[in-house]
Amino acid sequence: MDAAHLRLLRELRDRGSVAAVAEAMHVSASAVSQQLAALQAHAPVALTTRRGRTLALTPAGEALAAAGTRVDEAIVAAREAVGAFLDASDRPVRVSAFHSAGLALFGPLLRLLDGAPPLHLSDADVAHRDFPGLTADHDIVVAHRLAHDEPWPEDRVVAVSLLEEPLDIALPADHPLARSGELRASDLADERWVSVHAGFPLAGVLDHLAAHVGRPLDVAHRINEFSVTAEVVRSGAAVAVMPRITTTPLAVDGLVLRPLADLSLVRHVDALVRPDALAYAAVRRVVSALRTVSGRASREASEADSGAPST
């Protein structure tokens, strides 16, 4: 089996269609189909199947795609054994992060690395299930999930823990509840809320809150960008759930964050990397730097909490 053909299976799994694979690889859709057919000719079981007008992987195709990832990892490791290029510090590293993580981590990351290796940064906030697929276009994807979400697929990505981040309630500074050091879920049952869109990692938090208080919450607004949510909260129109560490820069100018005493709300922030990408020294250096700046952000948030005056 040709390693390039195996790579096509992985691309089809991550991108979802032959057309998307062709566009990403700058070839025609017919060329992709021909290469997949060549791979199928060497396999005794069906690797793909039609689902409507879309070509999808069968369970055997999924297994072979996972094996192909390990083949690529072995190939890169073999190159590392004979070629110093894998240790080159000038290899650009592509990093994607959801919005609040980019706000908190991109600046410190750039300052820490100081151009070595060069970074190509982008922001992408997607549904939980779609974060692993972003590794098709990025060396490192900073993703988030709640404790009860499905774990990241170990056959596709390596997950490196960056933060375990508490989730707080964002309130206008003049809200009566802002005078309390901590809140209870029942205090918030009658509030209007800003939530994220359905399917995104924090969407389940308000469902959890509603179950705890025993009735639905009034979700008035659905906004994914926390800087926009912060403006809505400052206006007094609603309250929201916001992460404590990555949104610390937003907890100013009339917005405060308060923890819940009777519910533990936490999200996990992880760096997702394909195993073959992790074989590059430049990628490993950036992952290490992300862990460093995440640790600093966590410590600074803890110090700010401990030093904050009680209200």
Structural summary, described in words:
There is one protein chain. This protein is of the alpha/beta class and 311 residues long. The protein has three domains: 80 residues, Arc Repressor Mutant, subunit A (Orthogonal Bundle), CATH 1.10.10.10; 107 residues, Periplasmic binding protein-like II (D-Maltodextrin-Binding Protein, domain 2, 3-Layer(aba) Sandwich), CATH 3.40.190; 94 residues, 3-Layer(aba) Sandwich (D-Maltodextrin-Binding Protein, domain 2). The chain is built from nine helices and eleven strands. Strands 3, 4, 5, 6, 7, 8, 9, 10 and 11 form a nine-stranded mixed sheet that branches. Strands 1-2 form a two-stranded antiparallel ribbon. Strand 1 and strand 2 form a beta hairpin. Helix 1 crosses helix 3, helix 1 packs across helix 4 and helix 2 packs across helix 3. The protein starts with a helix and ends with a helix. The mean pLDDT is 89.
**Strand and helix order:** HHHEEHEHEEEEHEHEEEHH
Q: Count of DSSP E strands?
A: 11
In CATH, the homologous superfamily of the largest domain goes by the name Periplasmic binding protein-like II
The Rg value, from CA coordinates, equals 22 Å
How many domains, as an integer? 3
Uncertain ranges: none
Structural class category: alpha/beta
